[in-house]
Structures are given as C-alpha cells and as structure tokens.
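> @MW can you paste both from yesterday?
MW: sure, first one:
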Amino acid sequence: MGSKRKEANSFEAELANLWGEEFYRVLGKVRVGLAGAGGLGSNCAAYLVRTGFRRLRVVDFDRVSPANLNRQFYFQEQVGMEKVHALRENLLRINPSLELEPVVARVGRENFRRLFADCDILVEAFDDPGEKQALTRLFFDLRVECSRPYLLVAASGVAGWGASDAIRCRKVLDCFYLVGDEKTAVGKEHPPLAPRVNVAAAKQADLVLDFVYSNRHLWEKANPERRWEEGG
C-alpha cells in the first residue's frame, strides 16, 4: 500500500511540476463524464488521466470481449469483465489516487440527469449513431435545466484506416465540439481499428484539456464537493 501511494505521489508530483501547482489543482476539481467505455471512451479516459484529470465518471453496460482488444484499453485477462470496472482497474495503474466512479448502465432519458448533471464536461463515446444523436439532445436539455455540463465533446466518423488528417475537431457551438471525418461509419469495408480510433480519442481529450485551461477561472475558487452536491 505504501509503495502504491509513493508511486501515485511521484506521478502527481511530476504532473504538478509540469503544469504548475495552481492549474494542477484546477484539473483535480473538474469532473468529466464519459458516456461509453469502448474504443473512444476507454482511450480518451486514459489520455485524460495521464494529463492530470482525477475525477471521472464512466458509464457503460457492456463487458470486455476478445473483439475489443484491437482498439480498446483492455487486456486478455479482462475478457468477460464489465468494461467500467476493467477500465477503472487499468486507470488506477496510471494514478492510484484517481477518483473514478464506474457505473454499469445504459444511458437513456430516464437516467441521464442523475448520471451527468454534476459533471462539468461530457464526452460522448458511443458506437451507435442513433445513440449519439439522442445523447446530444439530452445534453442540451440538461444545459437548459442545470447550466451544466459546460461542454460536450462528441465523435462521428472514426472507422477504417488511412487519411487520419481527415479526423478534425469542428466547433459546432461554444459548448459543443465534434471530432471525426463525419462520414466514415463502421462497416465491413471500414472496420474500427486502433490508429484512427486513438487519433479521435486523443483529440477528444485535447479538446477537454483546452476548454478547461481556457476557462480555468470556473474552477479556480470552486469547492468541488459542494458543487457536486448542488448539481445533483
């Protein structure tokens, strides 16, 4: 236990040195919700943790399968595990002090507010286009009601290989960004593969980071515990 804590302190000390203590504290106050723990969600979560984010809620109903291992942040021995618990296990190996809440659930209208109303940022990481569109509508409904999450980062068109420069970050609104080429859906000729999926996941994480850095005043004096209680 002592060894793990020492490693965590070393990891966080290096990040605090990289960012500076003030902004590193900001990163520790931001709660990011991830809807989906597949190729986009699992890899985006790993990039966020390596960057310094420490408060994550990951929601998914699925289990790890052998077919996932070509692009998702899981390992052979985790096949059969619920994805959110396997992901928590993997992310804690990066930072044992991480505050990650795994939720086994299918996201829908009936539970969306409960799952994400206290999140500052929402990352959409679904596979199904219909579910992506439904989540976007729910996000805007929730913003009207709660003024949060502040930002939605979604993805569309990340399948296949090659033409990775076509995976762009498009600003739809101040509170909504879309990552992908917006045309290459998963299919027989365009399977989901690690390189383009990871490019998109990394860009999602980078958009989250850029938003937080540019709007760090929102969190500099915030008490995260009080805000989570009020937001719920």
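MW: second:
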Amino acid sequence: NVIITNYETTIKENENYYIKEKGGKVTEYWVPNTIQILRTENISERILLLKNRPQSIIYEINVKLDDSGFNEIK
C-alpha cells in the first residue's frame, strides 16, 4: 500500500505524532487486510485508519475534501 504526500504529512502512531514525509514523496506502509475510511460530522472530512498487523499499530490521518481531492488536515 502506498501513500503519496504532496505536503508535510503527520501520522498519529500509538498516541504520539511523527512526521513521516515532506513534499511530493511516496511512503510505503505495510497494512495488510485493514484500511478504514471513517466518516466525521463534517461531510467533507474523513479519517483514514491504516492498521499494521500483526503489531496492531494504527496510523491515523485526518483528511478533507477540496478541489484537488482529499488532503490532510493540518
């Protein structure tokens, strides 16, 4: 599975935040079986949950839909 980041991307990992990539890079995550897209109260926003198994690490990315597609909420 691949995430392409156009801007600085912050990913929540086990209650800590880590900067994974900056500007136009491709990041690979091993997330077999589980990628969830969760709805929020705001119709244009989603939460992406990438679950890394078997370690049970969850990567959480908040995104918002705009003219260019879904982008991370800063």
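> thanks! The two ends are 23 Å apart (CA to CA).
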